[in-house]
Amino acid sequence: MILEIDGLNFRYPDAPKKAVDSFSLQVPESEIVVLAGASGCGKSTLLRAINGLIPHMYAGDYSGDVRVGGSSVKASSMRELAQRVGFLFQNPENQIFMFTVERDIAFGLENLGVPRQEMRRRVDEAIGLLGIGSLAQRAPYELSDGQKQRVALAGVLAMRPKLIILDEPTSLLDPKTALDFVDLVANLRKDVGATFLIVEHRLDLLVKVADRMVVMSSGRKVLDGSPSEVLMGDEADGFGVSIPAVSRVQKLLAKDGLAGVDRLYDAEEVAAIRQRERR
Questions:
Q1: DSSP per residue over 163-186, as a string?
Q2: Closest residue by Cα to residue 35 from 185, 216, 183
Q3: Bridge-partner residues for 220, per DSSP?
Q4: To 5 degrees, how large is the angle CA 56–CA 58–CA 60?
Q5: Taking a C-beta distance cutoff of 8 angstroms, is the pair 147, 135 a contact?
Q6: Burial degree of 224 (CB within 10 A; 0-12, 13-18, 19+)
Q7: What does each C-alpha distance from 242 to 53, 200, 236, 246, 268 come to in angstroms?
Q8: Distances in whole angstroms, Cα of residue 121 to Cα of each of 105, 149, 158, 163, 185
Q9: Taking 90 as the threshold, does the pLDDT of residue 13 lie above it?
Q10: Cα–Cα dist 256/31, whole Å
Q11: How do residues 23-56 score in pLDDT, each as one tens digit?
């Protein structure tokens, strides 16, 4: 297992209740897991516990264990965790600040003291995987939001983490760029075996690539299953999950006994069905 969370509990100082409550989860290698739930359900705190900010930088009542690649987060230094857990922020500008794209991708490796030859190899590899060779010598401020997102992800990949966390990665992207980014995630899983934990509200974008969807409420894990099982079920609505419109329609049709709607279709499948109907 790449990620193992066993009975995690965390309460911030002076908080009336736990932010994460008896949370357990196992994520195998190369899986894409979507983490969903209403604002305030504990998602951000859980991510901090996975990348080590909790307990190393945030104080509070902590119990249970989080392991990444078999090593306990509590027993690992932040330096070690930076090489195991990659984190892509909602706004890529929060992690892009060097003068050129190439230098930005190399920044984390420089801080770890990676030898120059190995650094060059990793930077070139990340640039190739993200398809941003034409951007290597450009300044980050010249790039579009979609290009900045790819550059930020290249910097994460260059560190070769075991787990990559994406925190609402499509929130600043237009629909076409967002779909391209989701396709990129699917290709990275296929090409390099990357494992992703994704927090995202635009769930319709991720239906076709996610293996699992985990829903949180009041710090607890309340649902865990395939996207079809979660979004076509009757419980997700009650936990503040943004059910895609197409899923709501399919649920209604399935309840009426219409054949062929017992699973969840993604946006591309719906478009193909509409195209066939026009012919």
A1: EEEEESTTTTS-HHHHHHHHHHHH
A2: 216
A3: 217
A4: 105
A5: yes
A6: middle
A7: 28, 10, 8, 12, 19
A8: 12, 21, 9, 21, 21
A9: yes
A10: 34
A11: 999 999 999 999 999 999 999 999 999 999 999 9
pLDDT band per the 50, 70, 90 thresholds, residue 207: confident
194 contacts 30 by C-beta, under 8 angstroms: yes
pLDDT digits (tens, 9 = 90+) for 65-108: 999 999 999 999 999 999 999 999 888 888 888 999 999 999 99
Q: Are 264 and 207 in contact (CB under 8 A)?
A: yes
- Specify the range with the lowest mean pLDDT, choosing from 4-8, 148-152, 185-189, 252-256: 252-256
Distance CA 191, CA 177 (A): 21
Predicted TM-score (pTM) of this structure? 0.87
Half-sphere exposure of 34 (CA within 13 A, CB side): 29
Q: What does the radius of gyration of the chain's CA atoms come to, in whole angstroms?
A: 20
Q: Contact 14/40 with Cβ under 8 angstroms?
A: no
Q: Looking at this protein, which amino acid is placed at residue 147?
A: Q
Please report the pLDDT score of residue 259 as a whole number: 46
Lowest mean pLDDT among 122-131, 171-180, 262-271: 262-271
In whole angstroms, how far apart are CA 215 and each of 46, 152, 232, 264, 276? 12, 27, 14, 17, 34
The amino acid sitting at 71 is S
Q: How far is CA 72 from CA 46, 69, 88, in A?
A: 15, 8, 21
The two three-digit tokens of residue 92, written as one number: 């890529």
